[in-house]
């Protein structure tokens, strides 16, 4: 997906309309909405949608890419002001919040992060960087990998996506996880 040829002007317009419609529909109805509904909202046929985005996860990744880029950039800036453990903790809390922006998105998070959009790549690289920094500082166990983090973020996102209580529940669950991976 990252090494695609430039699109013809009409194809680019269709792609942009699909992404705009997807954003609207996912916010309104969640990530599990029918892709036919996205195509109709975009004013394109379902074949056009699938030609650009062969799977739901491809569409989710493309629709979320700019958000993930901004998330990663903010994390990188903020991490300079935090110790490695708190930088990782803050990354995890915010990734859960991002995963809960579209109801039902959390179930696809692990797949979406592997799609290869610029935002997905940046988010994975930032999480890996923060984890390695914490491990190199000796505050996180060396046997933890980024895939473990994605699993935990997915689980916490699924547990909290319908939760109308405060962010305190997310913070509490992240804290439990952090205590489990912390050294000493």
Descriptive overview:
The chain is mostly helical. The chain has two domains: 1-54, Arc Repressor Mutant, subunit A, CATH 1.10.10.60; 55-181, Tetracycline Repressor, domain 2, CATH 1.10.357. Helix content is 70%, strand content 0%. It is built from nine helices and no strands. The longest helix has 24 residues, at 56-79. The radius of gyration is 18 Å and the shape is elongated. The protein starts with 8 loop residues before the first helix and ends with a helix.
Number of strands: 0
How does the overall form come out from the CA principal axes? elongated
CATH architecture label name of the largest domain: Orthogonal Bundle
**Category by helix and strand content:** mainly alpha
CATH fold assignment of the largest domain: Tetracycline Repressor, domain 2
CATH class of the largest domain: Mainly Alpha
Q: Main β-sheet, in a few words?
A: none
Strand content: under 5%
Helix/strand order, N-terminal first: HHHHHHHHH
Percent of residues in helical segments? 55-70%
Task: Give the radius of gyration.
Answer: 18 Å
- Ranges where pLDDT stays below 50 over 5 or more residues in a row are none
Mean pLDDT: 91
> How many domains, in number, for the residues?
2
Amino-to-carboxy terminus distance = 42 Å
